[in-house]
Specification:
alpha/beta; four-stranded antiparallel sheet; 10 helices
């Protein structure tokens, strides 16, 4: 395995916790120098989840991008395992985050249709069990740093500190859901085409349940995320407690941004600058694990919430050889990069073609922590440890829900082994109204396919050659259809939490001030 010291530091009101969890987008897991064995009593592993935003399958150098630079992620990949067939549960933000934290498809928890907005009154239901709650039953410290995007609510009901996390620091939704005047050092405007929402309050930065900056200063936001994340690691390590760090980046969602150290430093332009800042943050976290001497007992897992936002063109990310991007149930919308690192457990320089998903993190981490899975709850994930140890996956199916699911239509597509059947297809604005592939455009309306479109993703990951009308595949289509019917029988759609909205739900440092929303800002206002 790559030695931990290869990671150079680039710069110096809750619901009852029924379970305890370590939830992070990237799992830096190292139990000991001895490979993990379920029969051996070992110290509970730390868990780090590193979750990128809108980072596409083709955006990283180890996935083939010719001008992206991400040296710390490359070292992570060299020391661990790269996934080539890893899926997010949804092609958009909020539902994919709900599924990661609960191990359940978003329609079960009510995080549908679409995403939460700045004025949404709903959120991830408090009745849902998060991985943080599970890990807390095993003595874990839990923290989320970064983008939450699972609701705030009128009375801050849905913030992470009410969902099993001991500590929260970050922006509670996407940073384009507020005015965004400055994105690059020193005062470079974000640009007129970045689709920021000027009708809402400035982006708030929360520390636990208190707004500590509004509007958020994007030029220093990443460095503050790093400071909070590394301090959390240090504190937990000093106390000898296992921890779950869920570091959910704003990068590389549009509008991209970067501070003084990374502005105009990438061959890939503004997107590349933002990616470099994300990569630096990864390096700082890995350096903190080394410095606190917990790297050998930490699982790190890096992935993305969904595919790239192609509507932003040069600054929108890249799906590589996959079809379409964010918002669609084509491969570019939900197949995402993923890297797992755990010296002594996960083989270095390894690459897996096994099927896996963000849904699988919940049962995997629960089992690693020695916790019980929640009773009476339907889970959609499977334990991923066999894959991490270069064995076969326990998963042979994956089910695709669109951006805005509807019980009338249900699943849009089903993957079974290497075959994928599309029952419905639909383009989406985030895959670019001018996409060269007309199937991706929002003008490509909802279309039912009978028989379904069928693709062999091992041979044809770009979904170009339909096998659905060939006689020799008809029995296979019947098998896939039976898998679909069997799964949908288990689905009880949760009441939608996304429909409600109110100005009272918009985060505002000066509640009740006037003129709203411009008056909502902290006293030290960098923007002025």
């Amino acid at each position: 395995p790559a030695p931990a010291d290869d990671f150079n530091m680039a710069a110096t009101g809750r619901k009852e916790n029924r379970f305890q969890v370590h939830s992070l987008l990237v799992l830096l897991g190292v139990l000991t120098s001895v490979p993990f064995s379920g029969s051996e009593a070992q110290k509970k592993p730390n868990i780090v989840i590193l979750f990128a935003d809108d980072l596409g399958y083709g955006d990283l150098p180890m996935y083939g991008h010719p001008t992206s630079s991400a040296p710390h992620l490359e070292r992570l990949a060299q020391g661990g395992m790269v996934f080539t067939q890893f899926y997010s549960s949804s092609p958009v933000c909020s539902p994919s985050r709900a599924a990661l934290l609960t191990g359940r498809y978003q329609v079960r928890s009510g995080v549908w249709p679409g995403v939460f907005w700045a004025d949404s009154t709903g959120g991830l239901p408090l009745s849902e069990t998060t991985i943080a709650e599970v890990l807390k039953t095993q003595g874990y410290d839990t923290a989320i740093i970064g983008k939450w995007h699972l609701g705030v609510g009128v009375n801050q009901t849905y913030l992470p500190t009410n969902q099993g996390f001991d500590y929260y620091y970050g922006v509670p939704y996407s940073h384009d859901m507020c005015p965004c005047p400055v994105c690059f050092w020193p005062k470079v405007p974000c640009g007129l085409n970045d689709n920021c929402d000027s009708q809402w309050t400035g982006c708030p930065v929360y520390e636990n349940d208190r707004i500590v900056q509004q509007p958020a200063d994007l030029l220093t936001l990443s460095s503050r995320y790093v400071e909070k994340a590394t301090r959390f690691i240090q504190t937990s390590a000093d106390q000898g407690k296992p921890f779950l760090l869920y570091l959910a980046f704003q990068h590389t969602h549009h509008p991209q941004f970067a501070g003084v150290e990374f502005t105009n430093t990438s061959a890939r332009g503004k997107f590349g600058d933002a990616l470099l800042e994300l990569d630096w943050a990864v390096g700082e976290v890995l350096g903190a694990l080394q410095q606190t001497m917990v790297q050998a007992n930490t699982l790190v897992f890096f992935t993305s919430d969904n595919g790239p936002s192609l509507r932003n063109e040069q600054r929108g990310g890249n799906a590589g050889l996959l079809k379409c991007g964010k918002g669609t149930t084509y491969e570019g919308g939900q197949r995402v990069p993923a890297i797992a690192y755990w010296p002594g457990v996960i083989p270095a320089h390894s690459r897996t073609t096994e099927l896996a998903s963000t849904l699988d993190l919940f049962p995997t981490l629960t089992n690693l922590a020695g916790a019980a899975l929640p009773s009476g709850v339907t889970l959609d994930g499977v334990d991923m440890m066999p894959v991490l140890q270069s064995k076969h996956s326990l998963r042979d199916t994956f089910f695709y829900y669109p951006t805005s699911p509807d019980p009338k239509y249900g699943l849009y597509a089903v993957r079974y082994k290497q075959y994928k059947a599309h029952y419905y297809t639909q383009g989406e604005v985030n895959s670019n109204p001018n996409n060269h592939d007309q199937d991706c455009r929002p003008s490509a309306k909802l279309t039912r396919h009978d028989p379904p479109l069928l693709f062999n993703l091992n041979d044809d990951p770009s979904e170009q050659f339909n096998l659905g009308n060939i006689s020799e595949y008809q029995q296979l289509l019947k098998t896939i259809d039976s898998k679909k019917v069997e799964f949908e029988k288990t689905v009880v759609w949760g009441k939608s939490q996304i429909a409600g909205s109110s100005p009272d739900a918009e985060p505002c440092y000066n509640k009740g001030c006037s003129p709203f929303p411009q008056c909502c800002h902290t006293p030290q206002w960098w923007w002025a």
